[in-house]
Amino acid sequence: EARSVLPTDWDFLMLGSAHCQYRYKEHVAGPLWSVYWPIGTHAYVLNAKAIPVLLETQRHAGMPIDLSLAMRSWPLLNVYTILPRIATQHLAPLDE
């Protein structure tokens, strides 16, 4: 459903993200949102045209990748997010 309403200018589609309720967002259509800027990299779809930007902006990521993406890459890319998320992360207990 989200792919059918995804704008042609998309670079990054977040299938899973976190803390979007605290961020400014605009509804696109259906489950698709433009969120400024999503964090969490549970699952995503990447458009090949975004690769040069990601390689340049993430070459020296000195922080968790989701924060580095939000600070360095998202301002240069068209990022869309599915809400509510359709992918999530499971964090195993430390003793596993």
Explained architecture:
There is one protein chain. This protein has helices at 2-5, 51-57, 65-73, and strands at residues 12-18, 24-29, 32-36, 39-46, 79-82. By secondary structure, it is of the alpha+beta class. A five-stranded mixed β-sheet has the order 2-3-5-1-4. β2 (24-29) and β3 (32-36) form a beta hairpin. The longest helix is centred in the C-terminal third of the chain and has 9 residues, at 65-73. The chain starts with a helix and ends in a 14-residue tail after the last strand. 23% of the residues are buried. The model has no long low-confidence stretch (mean pLDDT 88).
List keywords for this structure.
single chain, 96 residues, alpha+beta, 5-stranded mixed β-sheet, 3 helices, 5 strands, 31% strand
SSE order and pairing:
Blueprint: H1 2-5, E1 12-18, E2 24-29, E3 32-36, E4 39-46, H2 51-57, H3 65-73, E5 79-82
Parallel strand pairs: 1-5
Antiparallel strand pairs: 1-4, 2-3, 3-5
